[in-house]
Design goal:
By secondary structure, this protein is an all-beta fold. It is built from one helix and 35 strands.
Length: 377
């Protein structure tokens, strides 16, 4: 699954489990799960259909609504508590990423580099062109829409009319991981990972760079060995921000200056989460791990899903985390000691990006286009 972009760059489309699984040299099937297993202590709160999805698609949670999109251009607004369809529209374009949303608007992107914005009732607001294909859900905050494109640009657009406010252009290695997870906005800042293993913080309004630090350093003699790109959404807390890198590390930094706090040589492509005490990560072998949030020290690990390409973890309830594997099974682990609590089948397809959280609900969109909200039993 290596493709050539419009800029004649080789892009390794490895950003998620089902992309990665198709890129293994052996192409062998994942290890078979045991025939019997405990029933996960969770239940489906609701399930909705959103149409066929792809890398770069994820539900956007805003207020009492969830916005979901499909590749054919359909955008759907769902009630966050029931999954009931509030409205459905056609963006009049094939989509490559999205949606991103806040309380007032929802934004999607296209393979042709078009960014299309609607208000929270589905009425078209504006559509503009950026430098190339939009590859991750746009980030909407502070009256700005931040868009990441395939040529490693980050565009800041005015939320009211789509006019360009700022643009950042990053150096692009010849072989990179296609980062479809996107950026995170917090307290006026925008945090995003880049090719080459960098984590960057910028002012959302102006695009001015606050800091730019290394999560991982490329190593090896071949271009493939030297891929060490940040592929997780940054995990932004009160005092620190953390990220993980493919063929690299998990690292945390002080949020104001970007000063390193700790790093661990744990390669991951699928995303991280944390509570007040621990950070949770699925590494690139499929091992689910918990690290001390202050020091990075190992707390526990569970290797049950080795080779099954689990998603990034997400909380389901207060004392459990869940991951979704390449065959769409939801696996649940105790946050206390990592013991396996059980599994639940879904539609047989993996997630498009790391599952999200709303209260006690774990929410994700599958490759087949189903949106799941899972709650503890």
């Amino acid at each position: 699954m290596i493709q050539t972009s419009h800029a004649a760059l080789l892009i390794a489309a490895l950003g998620l489990v089902w992309g990665l699984a198709g890129c293994t040299s052996s192409n062998k099937k994942p290890p078979k799960l045991p025939d019997t297993a405990p029933v996960a202590p969770v239940a489906v709160a609701w399930r909705a259909s959103a149409g066929n999805a792809a890398l770069g698609f994820a539900p956007a949670l805003a207020g009492n609504a969830i916005y979901v999109a499909s590749r054919d251009g359909t955008i759907t607004s769902l009630d966050i508590d029931s999954g009931k369809t509030l409205w459905r529209i056609d963006a009049d374009a094939k989509l490559s990423a999205g949606p991103g949303a806040d309380a007032t608007m929802v934004v999607v992107g296209t393979p042709a580099g078009e960014v299309i914005a609607f208000d929270n009732s589905g009425k078209l607001l504006w559509r503009v062109k950026v430098s190339s294909e939009v590859i991750a859900p746009p980030t909407v905050a502070e009256g700005v829409v931040a868009v990441i494109t395939a040529d490693n640009h980050v565009h800041g657009l005015n939320g009211s009319d789509g006019a360009a406010k700022w643009m950042l252009q990053r150096n692009v290695p010849s072989l990179i991981v296609r980062n479809t997870q996107g950026a995170v906005s917090s307290r006026g800042g925008l945090f995003f990972g880049t090719a080459g293993g960098r984590l960057v913080a910028v002012d959302m309004a102006s695009g001015n760079i606050a800091w730019d630090v290394a999560v991982a350093t490329p190593k090896g003699t071949t271009e493939l060995e030297r891929i060490a790109d940040v592929t997780s959404r940054p995990l932004v807390g009160e005092k620190q921000v953390c990220a993980s890198a493919f063929q690299g590390r998990v690292a945390c930094f002080e949020i104001m200056q970007g000063t390193p706090k700790w790093t661990r040589d744990i390669p991951s492509y699928s995303g991280i989460i944390a509570d007040e005490e621990q950070l949770y990560v699925s590494d690139d072998r499929g091992v689910v791990r918990a690290l001390d949030i202050q020091t990075g020290a190992s707390v526990w690990k569970n290797d049950l899903l080795t080779g099954r390409w689990p998603s990034g973890p997400q909380f389901v309830g207060h004392d459990s985390i869940g991951v979704v594997d390449i065959d769409g099974y939801l696996h649940v682990f105790s946050t206390d000691d990592g013991h396996y609590q059980g599994r639940m089948p879904t539609d047989g397809s993996p997630v498009t990006v790391q599952p999200q959280r709303d209260g006690e609900q774990m929410i994700w969109q599958s490759k087949e286009g189903n949106v799941y909200a899972i709650v503890p039993r």
